[in-house]
Amino acid sequence: ANYFSKFSKAPVICKLVGRKVLDGVGQPTLEVEIFCTVKNYEERICSIVIAFHSQIPDTIEADEKERNDSVHTAVEWVNEALNTMLRGLESTDQYQADKMLGEYFANKVEEKKAIQEQEEAAAAKVSPAPSSCPPTPIPKQKRGGKSVEQNPIPPAEPAEPVLCGSLAIGATSLAIAKAGATISCVSLYLYIALLKHDQESPKEMTLPLPMVTLLNCEKNSPTKLKLVKEVMLIPPVELSLKQGIERIQDIEKEMTRLLESSGKMPGSQADSKKGKGQNSGKKGLPPLKIISHLGCLTTGYDNLEQLLVLMQTACRNIGLELGTDMYLAINCAAHELMDYDKGKYEILTGTFKSPDEMVAMYMEMINEFPFIIALIDPLRKEDREQWRSICCALGSKCYLIAEDAATHISRLKTDQNINIATCSGVVLKYINQTKVSDLIELTGILDGQRHITILGSPDGECLDESLVDLAVGLGARFLKLGGLSRGERVAKYNRLLAIEEELAANGTLREAKLEFIDFAGESQPEEQLPDVLPAPEQD
Length: 539
Description:
- The chain is α/β, with parallel strands linked by helices.
- It has 2 domains: about 1-115 and about 160-185, Enolase-like, domain 1; about 195-260 and about 290-505, Enolase-like C-terminal domain (TIM Barrel, Alpha-Beta Barrel).
- Helix content is about 35%, strand content about 20%.
- It has helices at about 1-5, 60-85, 95-125, 165-185, 190-195, 240-260, 270-275, 305-315, 355-370, 385-395, 410, 435-450, 465-475, 485-505, and strands at about 10-20, 30-40, 40-50, 140-145, 145-150, 205, 210-215, 230-235, 295-300, 325-330, 340, 345-350, 350-355, 370-375, 400, 415, 415-420, 425-430, 450-455, 480, 510, 515, 525-530.
- The strands form 7 sheets. An 8-stranded mixed β-barrel has the order 7-8-10-14-15-18-19-20, surrounded by 5 helices.
- Helix 3 packs antiparallel against helix 4.
- Mean pLDDT is about 85; it is low at about 130-135, about 140-150, about 265-290 and about 525-539.
């Protein structure tokens, strides 16, 4: 029976089911379930839940309406048009499926444009044309009593419009990939690797290094520091993933202890003393830890040195040294810092710096704290000249990574080139109309141009673990999943641990490498990160 089963017809998709489900923070998102005809019987093969992602609207009500409308439309697309369109297609024909999904989405975009043009034409007939807007004033700076005009900063690029229902495309593409892996009896990460390498099985595979978020520094907190949004820990490459996570947990426990003792967390000892009279006669309650949606501690600081010195103290208290036993990455989210009236970044409350001054500040920071080996979004994507400057100055010492500073995936690829400012690498997120074949093609181009790939999870995460398999199969250098709390994030770390075990058992696990790009001397080979980063030069 097993012999003759090899000659049976290949399984084909017979039904797609889309439904509205809840993500990790209780918000609606999309699940896609795939059924295939296997040996003349309909079988449920797999399902995928994809995180919803949109541009931030002006109000919470607008966000909820946009989300609900988009999920509702996506469910309709899956259950009606996509279900009919993909019926009878082999689940292992990923590229044909993605081609059909891409064409369907392109048609929807054209339909939307046609409707908008009709609405604009109708509105133009009713209302008179508005008067032209006055030019944006150029900020002036006084020097010696005279006003000197400054060069205006490049304006912010308009947000990439998100078509209502677009997450149906990404969810269906990933569901088909998962179904293909299930039908082929291989893990999803290996199936993705086979797709990327033209069905040639890689002899060795490297796990992406985790960027584990330790602290979420809210920019609207009463503290002064605005430059840092996330502080992330990167374990050294010589440790296994399991050892690295255990070490990160030790640092997290010590940081929690230090924050509680310094009164920087709600429910800390300092706070409990204030309310001692009110709680008399009651047993001491455990301190309340504020865990952000990123699965990490939420806190704030008044300056960068205060934060980094506390990190060093926490590591030394447990016998570790930053720069040897653990490295740091900082997400600056610079696009959130720009004050467009002043044309400068607000790095501390009331302290502003121009784009050129930001470059100088980062150079000083990395020289003083060489254990920082990655900066994410240190500048806006519009400041291309400064991106080039910072990469030439610091590219051989740390990774300069574009996340929000990278263009939307649909605009990243232009004639086999990456349409972004000079940078070390890009954070890619599997959202909206992104298809599996898009990521395979894009990471291939990034690999060829010596950019590193970081797979990142969106803010509104879900329990689906497929992002981890994507990162491993695509050969991503880093994986940015958030902290070690919240089930939807921990599930992904557990999946990464399981893949490490599987690769180690098969003898196909290769140790990762940390290599920087010397942008200042492109002809020189890449520098490998030494076991101990050099100390900053003394004046």
